[in-house]
Structures are given as structure tokens and as C-alpha cells.
Design brief:
The protein has four domains: 101 residues, GIY-YIG endonuclease, CATH 3.40.1440.60; 192 residues, 3-Layer(aba) Sandwich (Rossmann fold); 183 residues, 3-Layer(aba) Sandwich (Rossmann fold); 85 residues, Alpha-Beta Plaits. It has 18 helices and 27 strands. About 1% of the residues have low confidence. Bound molecules: adenosine-5'-diphosphate and zinc ion (2 copies). The site of one zinc ion has 8 residues, from loops. The site of adenosine-5'-diphosphate (ADP) has 16 residues, from helix 5. One of its GO terms (molecular function) is hydrolase activity. Component of the replication restart primosome.
């Protein structure tokens, strides 16, 4: 006998309240979570949603009432979202409740207060006629619509005019009475980027972001549900907009890691968009100048249709010239500053011409790697091919396998005693700029300078207005901003993101460098990009300098295949946490042994357990374990097994 757990009230506050009903014989094969059914309730007949089907009765089945029938009404949007929540629970290993809370918009009516946000100011912008698409843009639009609803990857160079393609697709959907969700990374939800959508679609478009109040979000989602708008733009959570006739989901900058949720449910927006698209019969378009290896692999295999934009859209705008500068050579030739001679020359030249400069320090993922200042040699783990990290106790440690070796006092490659970590921050860069270019007006953008609300937007608009000559910053400054007067981009140390202890470090580096390079010369003026590095021959840096994605992809995939890293293999990343270090270690070993004992012959490969990249956070110790196997299904079984066995904190991601 099967039993169904059903909710009758989908307001968020009541999600915990389920009622159990018998599944009648004739519906046994048909019913799935998310479906709307008619049930007896008191002495009425009402509709409810199936959350779960189970073999375990919660009370005496003899007293349990049966489901009467499937609801005749058209499938409501809630049913779709519940089905999606069930999929998220299975895929990301969260509870059903967490998944439902994520996908179902709050139903609580909160008094909406007027927004002081940019979008409100944008409401009154008049409608602008569309640009005439160029050949590549038109081919992409036609192609995407001809394979519809098959998902597409729109692989287009920075400045290629992907936004115009998105807008044409939105038009095509509107012509059929269908709605579109456009995901943009939160950091790119700027006035500049949104303006174009308001110009084109006026009050048919709404924007959500994390700074909106609950009431404002409620209003936006109500407008979506009732059909008052047909375009929703927002960060990953906008994916759950309750459009009843969803035609398309577009994910701009699909490679962005901000699309992966860091809290439970730890969902990945691209994958979830594909799934919602499939469930709703809607198309999905992934756009990027640097597609993730996952997406490009799917495009090559034919799972996604692939469309390319190879040249810049704006008349006269060409891709910038890129020069790689070897910092080892600079040091050898007596230049001890952070600016290579070629970069210093170029900065001086731009200041004279009153053009703008961006200086970029990619510190993300920077994990304290140690390198030789004379030859650029980086200490790496011989087993894992990630860089070793220096610990205070003088040891160099691999965070993937736990290998620990004493820090040598000489470079094993060239014998030089100049071995050190790379201690450059944006503040230091600003000080140096002021010292060497005293006339330059500077702006700095990093975590410190943008911690105040709004300051992020203020810095960008101040720079756009020409109130500064040089913008110094972390990856925040390179995300899709279009500054026409920027003709020089300097990347101060391209290596920084290369030596994080993450197997995706090469991919991140390629993406960052390509995006940064894309900032130069967007408005037709000739652009120059200077990439400073200790590793000019590294393939991520080398291929990024030619903006040669295909060659990068081949080399990176060869490395992933060799070590069975995704997307060449499947991998679980397991984090075991406990306030007592010995407990965390013991539990990690016990879980690993448990998996081995449970699946003795399955060809599972394990790395670790060992201390995680950050081995302690707020006095909680973290042990890490990687489990590789070609079968995703088996890995999901292993995940569920570990969830049942766990005695400490446990966080599992399928990478
Ligand atoms: P991407 O998002 O691909 O980096 P954008 O959509 O920001 O590129 O477009 C870059 C610039 O090219 C923008 O200033 C845009 O207005 C301009 N542009 C796009 N399409 C066309 C077109 N068909 N004709 C002229 N200019 C265009
Ligand atoms: Zn050396
Ligand atoms: Zn190792």
C-alpha cells in the first residue's frame, strides 16, 4: 500500500503541516510529487498538493481516507514549483521543507514601502526602439528559436552584444504571450545594465534583488503571477518567479559561481534552470564569453545547441591588444615596483590623454601560495596538482590529501633564497599608484570600500562620470560594466587566482582574465591589456591572452580527465565539521570507512579525509573528503548513506 503526504495550504508558514491519505489502486502509477489532487477534508472536498509518496503509514491505515481523484483544473504554477522542490531535495540533499521555502514565494502580504532603489527611478524611462541586429546576433536569435525549447549556449565575446540577443528573444516570447526570467549576477544588477531593459520594455519588466524588502518582493511576484509583467530580472532566486506561462529562462554570465547557493538547499542555478525549463516546457539560454567547462561540454555533446558571437557588436569596437609581462624578468632587470615598465608607460600615456585605466587584482581564492620570486616556481602537491599552502608552523600543506612538508629555505628549481607568499592588497596598490602617479585621481573598490550599502554603485557611477582616472579593485570591477573611456586594463598579478587549492583554479583564472581584458576599449578606442605574471607559460594565462577559449578548454579537459575531476568525472565534496578536532577527524575516517565497506567492489576513488582548505572556522574544525566515481547515481546513494550515518556536522556537494 502507498500513502501520500499532502499539504492543503501552501502559505509558507504552514508547510510543515502535512496530512496523509491512501493512494487508491487506480492512481498508483500516476501520482507524482507536486500533483494537485482532490481529497476529503472534514466534510468538504478540497484540493491539496502531493509532497511525498511513501510506504510508511503515519497512523492506522484503517482510519485513513483515500485520495478521491486528480484535480481537473489546469496545472497551477504551485504544482510546478513543488515538483521542482522535490527535484532539488533529491539533487542537493536538503530537506523538502528547505526546498519548498526556497521555491515558493512568501504569501504573507507585507506592507510594501516605496523603494529608494534604482529600479523605481527607472520606471519612467521611455521606450526605445531596438537596435538592428548584426548577422551573428540575428543568427543566434533564429537558431535559438528554431531549436526551442532545447537549451542553448550563447557563447559570445565580451562586447558581442548578447544583451540585444536576449531582448530579441524576450520579444519573441512576448509575441506568443509567454514570459521570461533573466538571471544576472547580483553584482551586475546595476543602473547601467538595467536601463536598457526599462528603455525597451517599460513597465512590463520587474527587477528583484537581495536588498528589496519582503513586501516589495511579494508585490513583484504577485505581478508575475497575475501577468502584469512578463520579464523578471534578478539574481539566482528570481529563478522561482511564479510565471504561469513561462517561455524562457536566460542565464547571463552562466559561468559565475555566484549562481551556486552557499546555504541549504545548495542548489546550482544553471542546473536548476535547465530542470525548471524542462518541467515547464520552456527554453533555456545560457550566455557567456567564458562558458563553464560543464556547459561547453554539454554544448559539444549536442545536449545544448551552440551559438557563437565572435566579434564586437558596436561599430568600430575591436577586441583589445593583450600583452603578457614576465615579472621574473622585471625583477632580474632591477624593477622592484609592482608596475612593470610597460604598464607604467601605458598608465602615464593614458593619464596624459585623459583616458581611463582599470587596475585589477584577482585575489579571489587566493590561499597563501608560496612561490620563488626569482624563477616563479610554485610549490605544488605531487599527488593532487594543487598548490601547497603555507601554515604558521612553517609547514607547506596540501589541502586535498593532507601532505605536509617543511618549508625549504631555497627554491628547489633555481636555488634562489627569495621564497615568499604574495602579499599584495588593493590598498597597497592604491598607495603605490599615488606614489608613482601623483597626479592621478583614484577610486578603490574591494570588500572594505563597498561594505556600506550603495557604495558599490556610487563608486562605479563616479568612475563612469569621469571623476577618477584610475579604478583599482578586485574582481568586483570587472563584472559586465561598460566604461567607454577605459582604454587600459592592468592585471597586476595574474597568478594569484591560479594557486588556490581548488581544482577549478585554472578555469577561474581564465574567466577572470578574459572578463578583465574585455573591459578595455569597449567603445571603439583602441584598448590595451597588460597581464603581469610570474608564469607567462601557464596555459590558462597564455590562452586568456589570446582569448582562445577552445585551446584552453582542450588543455583544461585533459587535466580534468587525467584526475577524473568534473565534468570528466563525478565527484562528491564532503565536509565534516565538529568543535572538537579529534571528533571531526575520527568521524571523517569512520564515514569514509563506512562507504568503503558498503560499496567494496565499486571502484570508488577517495581523496582524504584531510583538513579542509580552511581547517577551522569559528572554532569548528573542518575535515574534507572527496569521493570520485563515474556514476552520479551511485554518488547520490553514497550521499544519502552518509546523511543517515552522520554524527557530526556534514555538508555534501555533488561537484
Ligand atoms: P555583451 O553583453 O555581449 O558583453 P553588450 O550586450 O553589452 O555585450 O553590447 C556591447 C555594446 O554593443 C553595447 O554598447 C551595445 O549597445 C552595443 N551593441 C549591441 N548590439 C549592437 C548592434 N546590433 N548594433 C550596434 N551596437 C550594438
Ligand atoms: Zn626559483
Ligand atoms: Zn595532495
Amino acid at each position: 500500500m502507498k500513502y501520500a503526504n499532502i499539504i492543503v495550504d501552501i502559505s509558507l508558514e504552514k508547510l510543515d503541516k502535512t496530512f496523509q491519505y491512501l493512494v487508491p489502486e487506480e492512481l498508483n502509477e500516476t501520482l507524482r510529487p507536486g500533483m494537485q489532487v482532490v481529497i476529503p477534508f472534514g466534510n468538504r472536498k478540497i484540493t491539496g498538493y502531493i509532497l511525498e509518496l511513501t510506504d510508511t503509514p503515519e497512523f492506522d491505515p484503517a482510519r485513513m481516507k483515500p485520495i478521491l481523484s486528480l484535480s481537473e483544473k489546469a496545472v497551477p504554477i504551485e504544482a510546478q514549483l513543488i515538483e521542482l522542490a522535490v527535484w532539488m531535495k533529491e539533487t542537493y540533499g536538503c530537506t523538502l521543507n528547505q526546498a519548498l521555502k526556497t521555491v515558493l514565494p512568501s504569501r504573507r502580504r507585507v506592507k510594501s514601502r516605496a523603494s529608494k532603489e534604482v529600479p523605481a527611478a527607472l520606471q519612467n524611462i521611455s521606450l526605445q526602439p531596438p537596435k538592428t541586429l548584426n548577422e551573428e546576433q540575428q543568427a543566434a536569435v533564429n537558431g535559438i528559436l528554431s531549436v526551442y525549447p532545447q537549451p542553448s549556449l550563447l557563447f559570445g565575446v565580451t562586447g558581442g552584444g548578447k544583451t540585444e540577443v536576449y531582448m530579441a528573444l524576450i520579444d519573441a516570447m512576448r509575441a506568443q504571450g509567454k514570459q521570461t526570467i533573466l538571471l544576472i549576477p547580483e553584482i551586475s544588477l546595476t543602473y547601467q545594465n538595467l536601463r536598457r531593459f526599462y528603455e525597451r520594455f517599460g513597465n512590463r519588466v520587474a527587477v528583484v534583488n537581495s536588498r528589496l524588502s519582503a513586501g516589495e518582493k511579494y508585490d513583484s511576484y504577485e505581478n508575475a503571477r497575475s501577468g502584469r509583467i512578463d520579464i523578471m530580472i534578478g539574481p539566482r532566486s528570481a529563478l522561482f518567479t511564479p510565471f504561469t506561462n513561462l517561455g524562457m529562462i536566460i542565464v547571463d554570465e552562466e559561468h559565475e559561481s555566484a549562481y551556486n547557493s552557499e546555504t541549504s538547499p545548495r542548489y546550482r542555478a544553471v542546473e536548476t534552470a535547465i530542470t525548471r525549463g524542462r518541467m515547464a516546457g520552456a527554453g533555456v539560454v545560457l550566455g557567456s564569453a567564458t562558458p563553464s567547462l560543464e556547459s561547453y561540454t554539454k554544448a559539444l555533446s549536442g545536449e545544448y545547441a551552440l551559438f557563437r558571437i565572435t566579434s564586437r557588436a558596436r561599430v568600430g569596437s575591436v577586441l583589445p591588444e593583450v600583452k603578457i609581462c614576465d615579472l621574473r624578468k622585471e625583477l632580474r632587470e632591477g624593477n622592484k615596483t609592482i608596475f612593470s615598465r610597460i604598464l607604467a608607460e601605458a598608465i602615464k600615456d593614458r593619464l596624459e590623454k585623459r583616458e581611463q585605466v582599470m587596475l585589477f587584482l584577482n585575489r579571489r581564492g587566493y590561499a597563501g601560495f608560496i612561490s620563488c620570486r626569482s624563477c616563479g616556481y610554485v610549490f605544488r602537491c605531487p599527488h593532487c596538482d594543487v598548490s601547497l599552502t603555507s601554515h604558521r608552523n612553517g609547514q607547506l600543506v596540501c589541502h586535498y590529501c593532507g601532505l605536509s612538508v617543511p618549508m625549504p629555505d631555497r627554491c628547489p628549481s633555481c636555488g634562489s633564497p627569495y621564497i615568499a607568499g604574495f602579499g599584495l592588497g588593493t590598498q597597497k596598490v592604491e598607495t603605490m599608484v599615488k606614489k608613482y602617479f601623483p597626479s592621478a585621481r583614484t577610486l578603490r573598490m574591494d570588500m572594505d570600500s563597498t561594505s556600506r550599502k550603495d557604495s558599490h554603485g556610487k563608486i562605479l557611477s563616479s568612475f563612469a562620470k569621469g571623476e577618477a582616472d584610475i579604478l583599482i579593485g578586485t574582481q568586483m570591477i570587472i563584472k559586465g560594466h561598460d566604461f567607454p573611456r577605459v582604454t587600459l586594463v592592468g592585471i597586476l598579478a595574474a597568478d594569484l587566482s591560479l594557486y588556490s587549492d581548488d581544482f577549478r583554479a585554472g578555469e577561474r583564472t581564465f574567466q577572470l582574465l578574459t572578463q578583465a581584458a574585455g573591459r578595455a576599449g569597449r567603445a571603439g578606442a583602441e584598448g590595451l591589456v597588460v597581464i603581469q605574471t610570474y608564469n607567462p607559460e601557464n596555459y590558462a594565462i597564455e590562452t586568456a591572452s589570446h582569448q582562445d577559449y577552445e585551446v584552453f578548454y582542450e588543455k583544461e579537459m585533459a587535466y580534468r580527465r587525467l584526475l577524473s575531476y568534473p565534468p570528466a568525472g563525478q565527484m562528491l565534496s564532503v565536509l565534516i565539521t565538529d568543535p572538537k578536532e579529534e571528533t571531526a577527524v575520527r568521524e571523517a575516517i569512520r564515514l569514509a570507512d563506512g562507504v568503503r565497506a558498503h560499496w567494496p567492489e565499486s571502484g570508488i576513488r577517495m581523496i582524504g579525509p584531510s583538513a579542509a582548505g580552511i581547517s577551522r572556522i569559528q572554532d569548528v574544525y573542518r575535515q574534507q573528503l572527496f569521493i570520485k566515481h563515474p556514476s552520479r547515481k551511485l554518488l547520490l546513494q553514497i550521499r544519502d548513506f552518509m546523511e543517515l550515518e552522520k554524527k557530526t556536522g556534514l555538508q555534501i556537494d555533488l561537484l
